Amino acid sequence: MNVLKPHLQSTVFTLLERNKSQRQIQRLTGIDRKTIRRYQAIFESEKSASANSPTVTTGSETAVTQTPPPPRPPATDDSSKTTTFNFARSASEPHRDWIEQQVRLRRNAQAIYQDLVDQFGFSASYESVKRFVRALRYIDPEQFDRLEFAPGE
């Protein structure tokens, strides 16, 4: 399954917000209607999820502002357990900054590879990009905050 580039996704979402039909969006963007239908389902599910989410009314006296706890210090490095990836040997290394930016945008390796080929004339294999992206994600895992409460809190 191909993934639309972020600017095309936002274009489709904007046109859906303006109540354009799938055919009109297809004529304007050149994107297949089946793809538009898939993104329309995503758009509607996000819209219904945001409508159903509980919110505090503005100006409410009972609204309590909570500040998140300070960030936890990084875990101790136990280099004996981790295997390091040799970035210097990767064919993707010259495009590292751009790939890191795409990983932060949560794009998958296939979409990153397609853009590398389109924009930079990348000639290495998809597997090399996949290994590179996997190593980048392993280096920068999402932060996990442990919540601790006293009994009855």
UniProtKB/TrEMBL annotation:
Biased composition (Polar residues): 48-66
Annotated segments matching region Disordered: 47-82
Protein name: Integrase catalytic subunit
